[in-house]
Backbone:
């Protein structure tokens, strides 16, 4: 049994406006108990426009729920229209920021080099990156999921020192399982999550690798979370669609279909 505290995070993607965000976080706060927070860490990743509202609620009511952003600029300031910087997210007391989500890679052409720059931008500003990696269906069908995913890990961690890397969260999200209802089997998830930990051990040593939390993401629901969380190298879930329903997300946080 590892002493890694699982991180159960809801990635809201482009859903819930700031008023809906307040109602949603209030529901979570009402349902989650100290017992839940002893077992897991709970976080939400709302759209940028919701972060200030979520911060005000979390600060005002001293909630234990953490929050973060879905993306970060690789630059700290300047003429980058539409971007949101690390210092801005830090000012909003974000704990986490997702980097390299497959939807960023797919729709915005984000490369491993950009992910690397974003990981560094996160650390530069005191934020913890949730680095998202994972293969598409073609790669999976060809049986190259491990090599593909480890190459993404290598690319994003280029020149990231151990002192930073030890706090990273890595989310393994097979693209073919995102929003499709197709879930990787627990064994599929373990295969790649275990390989990621192995690569971290090669890059930074076994001790550091044992500290890093590796999440699984892709159609996680209350009905399948327990089997996925039972895998030795799965330390949490990055939940998309099912995280938009507060009751369902609370069940997922508890690894329970009840
Ligand atoms: O970031 C979350 C993942 O993309 C999973 O999304 P999903 O749970 O809707 O499949």
Residues:
């Amino acid at each position: 049994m590892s002493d890694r505290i699982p991180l159960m995070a809801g990635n809201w993607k482009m859903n819930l406006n700031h008023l809906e965000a307040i109602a949603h976080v209030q529901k979570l706060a009402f349902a989650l108990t100290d017992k839940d927070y002893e077992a897991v860490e709970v976080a939400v990743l709302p759209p940028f426009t919701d972060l200030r509202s979520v911060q005000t609620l979390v600060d005002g009511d001293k909630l234990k729920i953490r929050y973060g952003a879905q993306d970060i600029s690789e630059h700290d300031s300047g003429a980058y229209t539409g971007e949101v910087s690390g210092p801005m997210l830090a000012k909003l007391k974000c704990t986490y920021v997702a980097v390299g989500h497959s939807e960023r890679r797919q729709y915005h052409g984000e490369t491993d080099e950009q992910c690397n720059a974003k990981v560094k931008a996160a650390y530069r500003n005191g934020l913890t990156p949730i680095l998202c990696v994972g293969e598409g269906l073609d790669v999976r069908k060809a049986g190259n999921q491990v090599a593909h995913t480890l190459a993404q890990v290598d690319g994003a961690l280029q020149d990231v020192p151990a002192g930073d890397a030890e706090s990273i969260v890595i989310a393994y999200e097979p693209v073919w399982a995102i929003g499709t209802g197709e879930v990787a089997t627990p064994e599929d998830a373990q295969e790649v999550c275990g390989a990621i930990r192995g690569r971290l051990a090669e890059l930074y040593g076994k001790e550091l690798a044992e500290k890093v939390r590796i999440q699984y993401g892709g159609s996680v629901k209350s009905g399948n979370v327990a089997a996925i969380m039972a895998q030795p190298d799965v330390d949490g879930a990055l939940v998309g669609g099912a995280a938009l329903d507060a009751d369902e997300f609370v069940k997922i946080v508890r690894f329970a279909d009840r």
